[in-house]
What we know:
This protein is of the alpha/beta class. It has helices spanning 22-35, 58-69, 83-95, 107-116, 130-137, 170-184, 187-199, and strands at residues 44-48, 73-78, 100-103, 119-121, 141-145, 163-165. It has one domain (22-141, 155-199): Glycogen Phosphorylase B (Rossmann fold, 3-Layer(aba) Sandwich). Helix content is 42%, strand content 13%. It has a 6-stranded parallel β-sheet with strand order 3-2-1-4-5-6, with helices on both faces. The longest helix has 15 residues, at 170-184. The model has no long low-confidence stretch (mean pLDDT 94).
Amino acid sequence: xxxxxxxxxxxxxxxxxxxxxxxxxxxxxxxxxxxxxxxxxxxxxxxxxxxxxxxxxxxxxxxxxxxxxxxxxxxxxxxxxxxxxxxxxxxxxxxxxxxxxxxxxxxxxxxxxxxxxxxxxxxxxxxxxxxxxxxxxxxxxxxxxxxxxxxxxxxxxxxxxxxxxxxxxxxxxxxxxxxxxxxxxxxxxxxxxxxxxxxxx
Length: 201
């Protein structure tokens, strides 16, 4: 995909930058409407921007799924990766059609996903991933294992752009998701993180 920002992207319904993040919320409700979901601007919308393979942490993702599905989140999955996980996600999206969707692997659909999503979840080292930097430009907050080019959010200093976890296990990953959920409840703090993402993409 070409390098583009949400302020210049003509394919998304509402363009935005760090000063107009309320338009990012409008993109979320527009996608919810398109998917036939209730318009719930405050509900956390997670995405898997790189799809899923074993190398991308598929085993950890499978371990996390029961806990993830117990939380008030929506999940967008990019339609790329291995057939094994494609089958799993197809089954999940049918069973949870009100909050799980597979997004076509096209530039326009992926940009719509970035424009709508609150956070992107990674189950393996995301350092250097093209999808990580694409999502950062759109203000999508990473939930990721520790990596060199991502600064973990510090609520005291009000700095950092990610919710990181130290160990590749389900408990550390789940705790990072919960930290993100709790922070999202405070719109000012969440927008601070989003702006930090966009400024450091």
